[in-house]
Design a protein that fits this description.
alpha/beta; Pyruvate dehydrogenase E1 component subunit alpha; Rossmann fold; binds thiamine diphosphate; PDH_E1_Alpha_Subunit; binds magnesium ion; magnesium ion binding; two-stranded antiparallel ribbon; EC 1.2.4.1; thiamine pyrophosphate
């Protein structure tokens, strides 16, 4: 595995630039959401993914169209990189009908069956049993699909985590668990709630392959995820990645952040996954200033178009609000 810290070869440069753009797209969208939230254009909860972009970018790049993805309430980046249009995401944040859930889901419940992005889940660990169910269905139907489930390390304290890993291993299901270990569950540091803080070790106790990975180094994440996804797809049973990362912003927009030192945040900011990769590419003469400018322009243009789309949208008419309480498809 070549770390970002190492020199990037010419062969790797195209992939590295591609992943840099993916991370930048997420970063810019998240920054815009913070801005729109402070202008009260977005209401309700907002949990941003800034700092953790290498995880979603490195993992999702290895998936195929028929695979399935599940994430948490910090899921805009996962949705975007899975292929949900930025406009449909932002319109959802505005509560507009043009959103991917007609504005009914909002920040924590993005969902898009077309790209097999099965949420967005506000319940800590709530996605794991869903992922196991999707993987069980694929196994029973003999389909060679992979289900990838992202969740925070806070999920380890929930029963669903243990039940899901146990059943996935017992039934050898095609699922990849991706634990985004950013060291905090709201204001609770991992060591204050878990006697064993080595999460990969804990997962390995369920008899599945589990690796800890530097979640700030997108090339390392990409390589680890490639191996894991290939193994799962080839029938080698469930795999587990503990991606060690850090969120640069508060837990949500309502968090006064009294539980961590500024020096700790500053330390992790030095390992900003975007800066790390940009510098490594520059050091290897694989990213000219004009190329970097172009990547930023591309990410900014996508977000600007998405804002325009969301702003032009409309809320659900009041008379439509009771639709979808019951299925409109009729008996199957
Ligand atoms: C079952 C459940 N219990 C409590 C909460 C309240 N809650 C919301 S986010 C959160 C912390 C989760 O932390 P983690 O899983 O590490 O994810 P992160 O926010 O760090 O990405 C908690 C406890 C919840 N949403 N669901
Ligand atoms: Mg966490």
């Amino acid at each position: 595995m070549t770390a970002v810290a190492g020199r990037i070869s010419a062969d790797q440069a195209a992939l590295a630039r591609h992943l840099l753009l993916q991370m930048l797209r997420v970063r810019r969208l998240e920054e815009k959401c913070v801005e729109l939230y402070s202008e009260a254009k977005i209401r309700g909860f907002l949990h941003v993914y800034i700092g953790e972009e290498a995880v979603a970018a490195g993992v999702l790049d290895n998936l195929q169209g028929e695979d399935a993805v599940i994430a948490t309430y910090r899921e805009r980046g996962h949705a975007l990189l899975r292929g949900v249009p930025a406009g449909a995401i932002l319109a959802e944040m505005y509560g507009h009908v043009q959103g991917c859930c007609r504005g009914r889901g909002g920040s924590m419940h993005l969902f898009d069956a077309g790209t097999r992005f099965f949420g967005g889940n506000a319940i800590v660990a709530g996605g794991l049993p869903l992922a196991v169910g999707l993987a069980l269905a694929d196994k029973m139907a003999g389909r060679s699909r992979v289900t990838v489930c992202f969740f925070g390390e806070g999920a380890v304290a929930e029963g669903e985590f243990h039940e899901s890993l146990n059943l996935a291993a017992l039934w050898q299901l095609p699922v990849l668990f991706c634990c985004e270990n950013n060291l905090y569950a709201m204001g609770t540091a991992l060591g204050r709630s878990e006697s064993q803080t080595d999460i990969a070790l804990k997962a390995a106790g369920y008899e599945l392959a589990a690796w800890a990975v530097d979640g700030m180094d997108v090339l390392v994440v990409h390589e680890a995820a490639r191996r894991a996804v290939d193994a799962v797809r080839s029938g080698a049973g469930p795999h587990f990645l503990e991606l060690r990362t850090y969120r640069f912003r508060a837990h949500s927009m309502f968090d006064p952040e009294r539980y961590r030192e500024k020096a700790e945040v500053a330390h992790w900011l030095e390992r900003d996954p975007i800066t790390l990769l940009r510098n490594a590419l520059g050091d290897a003469d694989q990213l000219a200033e004009a190329q970097w400018t172009e990547l930023q322009r591309e990410a900014d243009a996508e977000v600007a178009a998405a804002v325009e789309f969301a702003e032009a949208g409309t809320p659900e008419p009041v008379e439509e609000l009771t639709r979808f309480v019951y299925s409109e498809r009729g008996p199957q």
